[in-house]
Amino acid sequence: MSTQANRRNWGARLVVLLPYLWLVIFFLVPFVIVLKISLSQTALALPPYVPVFDLAAGWAGLMEFTTQLSVDSFRLLSSDAIYLFSYFKSLQIAAISTILLLAIGYPIAYGMARAPRAWQPLLVMAVVLPFWTSFLIRIYAWINILQRDGLLNDVLMRLHVIDTPAAWLSSDTAIYIGVVYSYLPFMVLPLYAALERMDESLLEAAADLGCPRWKTFWLVTLPLSLPGVAAGALLCFIPIVGEFVIPDLLGGSETMMIGQTLWTEFFSNRDWPVASAIAVSLLVLLLLPILFYERFQQRALEGGQ
Amino acid sequence: MADGGDAAQEKAASEKPPLVRFEAVTKRFGTVAAIEALSLDIAQGEFFALLGPSGCGKTTLLRMLAGFETPTEGRILLDGEDIGAVQPHERPVNMMFQSYALFPHLTVEGNISFGLRQENATRAEISERVAEMLALVRLQGFGERRIGQLSGGQRQRVALARSLIKRPRVLLLDEPLAALDKKLRAETQFELMELQRRLATTFVIVTHDQEEAMIVADRIAVMNHGRVMQVAPPPEIYERPNSRWVADFIGEATIVEGRISASGTMDSALGQLRVANTGGARSGDTVWLALRPEKIGVSSERLAGELNTVPGTVSEIGYRGDISIYKVRLADRSLMKVALANVGARGRALFKADDLVWVSWPPDAGVVLYS
Amino acid sequence: MRRGASSFNIISVVLGLAFLYLPITILVIYSFNASRLVTIWGGWSLAWYRELLHDDAVLQAAWISLRVAVLSASAATILGTFAAVALTRMGRFRGRLLFSGMVYAPLVIPEVITGLSLLLLFVALNMDRGFWTIVIAHTTLTMCFVAVIVQSRLISFDRSLEEAAMDLGCPPVKTFLTITLRLIAPAIAAGWMLAFSLSLDDLVIASFTTGPGATTLPIRIYSEVRMGVKPEINAVCTVMIAIVAVGTVAASLIAKSGTTKREHAALGAQV
């Protein structure tokens, strides 16, 4: 009996330890490293930064190590206008996109929730299916449509809405289209989940007490769906801030979202410390929304248990 | 802890040792005590009912017997052995769940045979016992059906067969008939009784439906707030409740408060009443008289004789078909409930509202209660 | 929420779905366009598909992507399921808050950050970057998605089924493996498929953690796409869409029908 309990204990420990250790090694530790690199200086070496942490150097090595750390990278970020502009741009695009996503996603989620029960799994699958196809492909598909000699211009010219092809691509508009297109499932699904769960009898009670349809929506449905709204908004806003692919493929050369800046610093300028500093400052910037999101997940976890 | 039916319990204990014994069991969830120092014996082969309002702890008690909860204090003995440390899958106790908890990915046969497969029984044994169970619950030929294809009543029978196949020492039933409609429930109650008698297995049923408990059980434990109020066979619970709470919880009763004046009489707001069975009560003790509606008579004139008679006015009449319930307002503004069988009445009540009547009952019709 | 959809509701859903599927449909159609230009329809042609078959670079990248996806999805499913079980069934163990934080964070943290941090780890550990570093990176990212899916299924799982199994003599561990896991298997499978498609699709993290000789398909496509639309890319994309579509439909069909036969086989095997 005790050996069985023992075996069960070890089994339970393994179940927790395996993913735990994995995440500590491949998620937590890397962040510490990023922090460390952000405090380093560029060097024409391999790896391209100093100081390099060397355990063999012992205690003296550690002292030397700490004296060589510098906050130069962060100073650069806070002083150079390019970076500040990049942060601002990212936040702006993320905020506007999130609002657009809400405006477009809510009616879709609402329509799905009101559909006949038998159709709902199908609708969910229909919304999710594009998500299964490659993200890159979907953005690329928009290039097809938005480019100068692309489909949109073709259609608009045939309809005589415009005379010469307009530059849809390489603009903020294209970024917004791409972002909304890619993140729509992330907004629709949490909203749908919250709306679908709503108790129909609450709406009937409101109607019984004299509320017209629109008022019922405003006073009952909308407030009750707010957790879904918050979840969807956070799930979209946070990653959009750091987006790279969409602004890179669809945006113009004047727009540099912070994700692109990081990429450029790392791959083009080979400036690892600055790239790391960008990553660290981006995390700090997003810390509050991330914490909010974690709080949500915790509450969902508690509620289920 | 009130423990009526001491005599019955002692009698059962002296005849043979109890199958199940709860010894001063307490169960706390955080700071809340769901069960409070509860002691109870369940005899071999009896159909035992745990009855009480929601939150009284009856389901917790059942789950402790199944092994899904462990007592915070006290012991639980099965066949004289402490089973507190025994895991649920090792106990010779099986349970029929309120939601049936049938495995959706297995057929009827798969569900019923599940318990035997855990024991590594042979294929021949399994098919034989499954056939036996299917015949027992009258579901022959249903073996290959999927659970989703069954009606509520059929699912209930599969759940029953599944829990009986291992021939457990005790079968636990957690509100097994709650999901059935009234007619089906009544039929199934008798089926359960017959089954229990045939198998001679100890059944412990948890229910909030007192009618159900009264019909099926050999003995009932009435519970409230984690304590047992009374343990006794149904007739005794009904005719001789041991407290006002039990008298009020089981069936209907009118409770009259008074004081013993002399042996055989009590003073009350309704006047001096003749009572039998005052037991050890002394003059001056406060007591309560519990009267069942069917034991009180209503007449337009005062009846003579040994009866207690009280005047009143008919306040309301409830027609139920088989009986009519009259609510009579007495001199002290209290309401007395009287039930009269509608024999020969043919839809016409004997009395109308506001009629002046006399209610009457013999001295031995009520029960004198001390708590 | 089912009092009947108004016309506004129906229109929003239809428009929404149209918006989602239109670009993909256009892409698929134009992969068969004989003309290079999007604005001119040159007739139906399989020319680009033929060119695709001769494009070794693309084919090799596809093969690498496929292997990475299968390996990382499988590892992620195991780790993610473990994580989900740990979060829902293990109560309040020490470090649970940190653990759940780590499980959910990759869902929202921008990929450039996770990609950069993983690369820096590999550099610090002096690991050669290539096939295996991408596998590790993808596993780390996608296990979180698996964990979320499996966890939500576990939370809504009817525990009285587990109690019934234990009551009938099935030990707790066996109950979990044969009853619980068996019944949440569709969610685990969905997790695998999600991890697979996320890995197959990932550009940013793969770019950071790749090495010589480990060019994945998205990296390949991306480098081609930066220079503009190319019809061969349309063909590649259509093939990928077709695979995903067929896979999803097949999976849902299997989930619906195959059970009866499997059940019987399983029952027979149990004795």
SSE topology:
The complex is a heterotrimer of chains A (305), B (371) and C (271).
Chain A: H1 2-38, E1 41-42, E2 49-50, H2 58-68, H3 72-79, H4 81-114, H5 120-132, H6 135-146, H7 151-158, H8 172-196, H9 200-208, H10 213-224, H11 226-241, H12 245-250, H13 258-268, H14 272-304
Antiparallel strand pairs in A: 1-2
Helix pairs in contact in A: 1-14, 3-4, 3-14, 4-8, 4-11, 5-8, 6-8, 8-11, 9-10, 11-14, 13-14
Chain B: H1 6-15, E1 20-29, E2 32-42, E3 47-51, H2 58-66, E4 73-78, E5 81-82, E6 93-96, H3 108-118, H4 123-136, H5 152-164, E7 170-174, H6 182-199, E8 202-207, H7 210-216, E9 219-224, E10 227-232, H8 234-239, H9 244-249, E11 254-262, E12 265-268, E13 271-274, E14 286-291, E15 297-299, E16 308-319, E17 323-330, E18 335-341, E19 356-361, E20 367-369
Parallel strand pairs in B: 3-8, 3-9, 6-7, 7-8
Antiparallel strand pairs in B: 1-2, 1-4, 4-5, 9-10, 11-12, 11-14, 12-13, 14-20, 15-19, 16-17, 16-19, 17-18
Helix pairs in contact in B: 3-4, 3-5, 4-5
Chain C: H1 7-31, H2 47-54, H3 56-89, H4 96-108, H5 111-124, H6 131-155, H7 159-167, H8 172-201, H9 204-209, H10 217-225, H11 231-257, H12 259-270
Helix pairs in contact in C: 1-11, 2-11, 3-6, 3-8, 3-10, 4-6, 6-8, 7-8
Sum up the structure in keywords:
heterotrimer, B: 371 residues, alpha+beta, 6-stranded mixed β-sheet, 25% helix, disordered N terminus, C: 271 residues, mainly alpha, MetI-like fold, 78% helix, disordered C terminus
Mean pLDDT of chain B: 89
Assembly type of the shown chains? heterotrimer
Q: Write out the strand line-up for the largest beta sheet of chain A, numbering strands in chain order.
A: 1-2
- Architecture of chain A, according to CATH? Orthogonal Bundle
- Average pLDDT number of chain A: 81
**Record field, number of beta strands of chain A:** 2
> Could you name the ranges of chain A where pLDDT drops below 50 across 5 or more consecutive residues?
none
Distance between the termini of chain B: 12 Å
Shape verdict of chain B = elongated
Order of helices and strands of chain B: HEEEHEEEHHHEHEHEEHHEEEEEEEEEE
- Rg of chain B from C-alpha positions? 25 Å
Helix content of chain B: 25-40%
Structural overview:
The complex is a heterotrimer of chains A (about 300), B (about 375) and C (about 270). With about 300 residues, chain A is mainly alpha-helical. Chain A has helices spanning about 1-40, 60-70, 70-80, 80-115, 120-130, 135-145, 150-160, 170-195, 200-210, 215-225, 225-240, 245-250, 260-270, 270-305, and strands at about 40, 50. Chain A has a single domain (about 70-305), classed as MetI-like fold. Chain A contains 14 helices and 2 strands. Chain A is globular and about 80 Å long. The mean pLDDT of chain A is about 80. Chain B contains 9 helices and 20 strands. Chain B is elongated and about 75 Å long. The N and C termini of chain B lie close together (about 10 Å). The model of chain B is unreliable at about 1-5 (pLDDT under 50). Chain C is mainly α. Chain C is built from 12 helices and no strands. Chain C has helices at about 5-30, 45-55, 55-90, 95-110, 110-125, 130-155, 160-165, 170-200, 205-210, 215-225, 230-255, 260-270. In chain C, helix 3 (about 55-90) packs parallel to helix 6. Chain C is globular and about 70 Å long. The chains are: A mainly alpha (about 300), B alpha+beta (about 375), C mainly alpha (about 270). Chains in contact: A-C, B-C. At the A-C interface, helix 1, helix 4, helix 5, helix 6 and helix 8 of A face helix 1, helix 3, helix 4, helix 5 and helix 6 of C.
